[in-house]
Amino acid sequence: MGLLVDGVWHDQWYDTSDSGGRFVRSKSQFRNWVTADGSAGPSGEDGFKAEPGRYHLYVSYACPWAHRTLIFRVLKKLEDAISVSVVDHYMGEEGWTLYGRDGGTGDHLYGAQRLHEIYTRADPKYSGRVTVPVLWDKQRQTIVSNESAEIIRMLNSAFNEFGDASLDFYPEELRTEIDELNDFVYPNINNGVYRAGFATTQEAYEEAFNQLFSALDQIEERLSRQRYLAGDRLTEADWRLFTTLLRFDPVYVGHFKCNRQRIADYPNLSNYLRDLYQVPDVAGTVNMHHIKAHYYGSHKTINPTGIIPLGPEIDYGAPHDRNRFAAKAA
Ligand SMILES: N[C@@H](CCC(=O)N[C@@H](CS)C(=O)NCC(=O)O)C(=O)O
Q: What is the ipTM of this complex?
């Protein structure tokens, strides 16, 4: 793993020396928006109009942030409109690679072997981390966005002419509530597992661990009253939580030491997780081999042997009890 400095690759692990052992995720730098009419969107410049065949996603099956974009792509029926390249699961000294190994697809556009080549193609002087997902514009040959939270909003609403316009995971009337849920789930749960796992002091680990499980306890209680996070309608907030819950028992419990209890030990969260997994087409976006092989194999500071545990066996397709609550279409 590493980063680009003025367009030059440096192999370097996260530096936690200035933050008391705390992992601090850096901000995504490409923040343009694809919009239906090509106007600028909430940030960035204009000129990125939604058109079929124009945009491409670079994703990792392992990564929870990239996984969100794959889910929105299939749910919004955008498979034909937006193409995808999948990086290899192993992230080593070259960062994310596109050798096309073991389920990785290679780079369909330029035959690049390392994702950092895509970043320098967009900006030869780029400085920063080279992360997935990336939304690439084939026409202007640049990165539109490398921020998953914003890419899923684009997929939700900009491409309605080419996908399923009937589904809306960020409906007007629920936006305030969804934003509040995201503001709670992101630091404590989505990023909380990383803050626990990448901590390099006991204090930083315990702080993240306690916040994580206190947040999961609160979500468990919420889900004892209603089917989804924002009530009876499936929204963006659920998909953002889903990709973390899915990785929790197979990876975060052991690898990131998030082991007060498993999701399987929470009756509502575990049934909710299966409910979301069983939404049509979602299971096809899940690659558990990439997920386990990536985390256990790539993070050598945490797991120096790179041994990938064989368990646990989890059947996310097993029946769930969430039909006891009302549900409205998204
Ligand atoms: N805020 C970004 C975070 C993306 C991110 O950190 N992705 C990880 C993979 S799970 C990555 O590519 N890490 C490489 C690195 O940090 O060098 C988003 O949500 O899109």
A: 0.99
